[in-house]
Design a protein that fits this description.
Length: 273
């Protein structure tokens, strides 16, 4: 019997062409990696936690957590990423487990995890019912008092980038932005093949509702990049000791401000069972 594909052809093709392996090692990815580690660390409640990394890509975060002594399980639908994650896990003294699967059907028992990280599913599942199924599965495998961290893309993300680099004036790009801002649905136009494939872009309130309707307790919403990436000398200034201190302080004081959240390309929700 033919296996049902876990993700769309477009998404598989996007990740086969793009390098998720090197993305976090260059440009904005470097700062994204450090920032997400900081956000995760804030919500790891105890040493030797059991952590499930859903949509964990090539395992960079799983590797980091496993090296800290946590018991980590990575779940990922993209075959290319699975192979890279397995390679990464094998090199560790205490390897993390790697499983190919989907977020709506986690292959773990009830109430086993202290922390569940939803890295990619919330912004790759365009249907609300699929995102809800993902959140309910995360809740199921979570221990009482455990925490879910859900990462999402902000609805105005493409629009802000398009305004900054002039792409907003390309008709197909503008049509894409209109869809994202009004319905949340993101589909990359054919003339912009380098853009992320089919996705869903959230508004902060929508993201909160999706979690709170499942009987989870809201902890907070966090801006991942925050508004500091709008600094037109962002890369140079983040590498400057004095200037990066200013930017990081600004990031910290605005990170939970829902009014300013849309200026951040990504956001993270923290919710408790």
């Amino acid at each position: 019997m033919k296996k049902t594909p876990l993700i769309s052809k477009e998404l598989e093709s996007f990740y086969n062409k793009a390098s998720e392996e090197t993305r976090l090692e260059k440009g904005m990815g470097v700062f994204e990696f450090d920032r997400i580690k900081e956000l995760i660390e804030t919500h790891v409640s105890k040493p030797k936690s059991t952590i499930i990394d859903v949509g964990g890509g090539t395992g960079k975060y799983s590797e980091w957590l496993a090296k800290k002594g946590h018991k980590v399980h990575l779940l990922e639908p993209v075959e290319k990423h699975i192979k890279l994650a397995q390679k990464r896990a094998k090199k560790l003294q205490h390897p993390f487990s790697v499983t190919q699967g989907e977020s709506q059907n986690l292959p773990y028992q009830n109430e086993v995890a202290d922390l569940v990280i939803l890295h990619g599913p919330l912004y790759h599942l365009q249907k609300r019912e699929d995102r809800i199924a993902t959140i309910l599965e995360a809740k199921r495998v979570l221990k009482r008092g455990g925490v879910i961290l859900g990462f999402a893309i902000n609805a105005p993300a493409s629009t802000v980038v398009g305004l900054m680099n002039g792409m907003i004036h390309a008709n197909s790009f503008f049509e894409m932005c209109k869809q994202e801002l009004t319905t949340g649905i993101h589909n990359a136009p054919k003339d912009f093949p380098f853009l992320l494939a089919d996705a869903f872009y959230h508004k902060p309130q929508e993201l909160k509702e999706e979690f709170l309707e499942q009987g989870l307790e809201f902890i907070n919403l966090f801006a991942v990049e925050g508004m500091i990436w709008l600094d037109n000398e962002y890369f140079a200034n983040m590498l400057d000791k004095k200037k990066s201190k200013t930017l990081r302080e600004l990031q910290k004081i605005t990170q939970n401000d829902e009014y300013l959240l849309p200026f951040s390309p990504h956001m993270m929700i923290a919710a408790k069972k």
